[in-house]
Amino acid sequence: MFDWITGILEGGGAWAIAALMLLENVFPPIPSELIMPLAGFNAARGGTPLWLAILAGGLGSLAGAYFWYAVGRAFGRERLRWLIARHGRWLTLNLSEFERAEAWFNRHGRAIVFFGRFIPTVRTLISIPAGIERMHRGQFLFYTAIGSFMWSGGLAVAGYLLEDRYEMVEDWINPLSTAVVVTVVAIYVWRVIRWKPDIRDTRL
C-alpha cells in the first residue's frame, strides 16, 4: 500500500495530492494522516517539492470542505434532514449526528471551523452547519484555510523528516499504511451495515 500510494503521488505530483485531499474531505478513501506524510516523504526523495506538496494538500482540503459548506448553504436544514433520513445509510449519518454537528457549530462558531480541521470526521461534518447557518463565506474560507494548511503542513513536514530514517521503519511502514486504509474501509462498511435511523427519521 505504501508503494502504491507513493506511486500515485510520484506520477500525479501536486495534482494527485490535491485530488486525494479533496476526496478525503468529501468521501475518505485514504485519510490525510496517510496522504500528507507520504507526500512529504516523497518530497524528501526528490519528488514534488515540500512547499508545493503542502500548498496542494491545503488547497485540496479547502476545496473538499467548501464542497460540504456549499451543500449546506444550498440545501438548507430541512432538505438535508430529509436526505439524511432517506439516504443517511450511505453517508453513515443519522439525525442525531447531524444535530450534534449543528450544536458544535452553534456553540463554538469560528473556533470549531478552525480546530475541526485537526479532528477526523469533524473536519467533514462541521462544514455542513457552517453552510446551513450561512456563515460568511470569507470567514469560513479563512478559518478553514488556516486549519487546513497547518494540518497538511505538519503532516507533510513529519513525512519529510522521516525520509532520513526510512531504513529504520521500512519493515513496518508498508503494512501499517495498508492497515490504515483497510481499517477506514472496514469502519465505513460496518457503519453502513449497522446504520439505523432515529425514530424521528421515519417520520420525515
From TrEMBL:
Listed transmembrane segments? 12-30, 50-71, 140-160, 172-193
Query: Major place of localization?
Result: membrane
> Any idea which UniProt keywords this protein has?
Cell membrane, Membrane, Transmembrane, Transmembrane helix
Organism from which the protein derives: Paracoccus siganidrum
Per UniProt, what is the membrane topology? Multi-pass membrane protein
* The name this protein goes by in its record: DedA family protein
Q: Name one GO cellular component term.
A: plasma membrane
Subcellular location per UniProt equals: Cell membrane
Looking up Pfam families in the UniProt record yields:
VTT_dom (PF09335)
Q: Which residues form the VTT domain?
A: 30-160
Q: Does the keyword Transmembrane apply?
A: yes
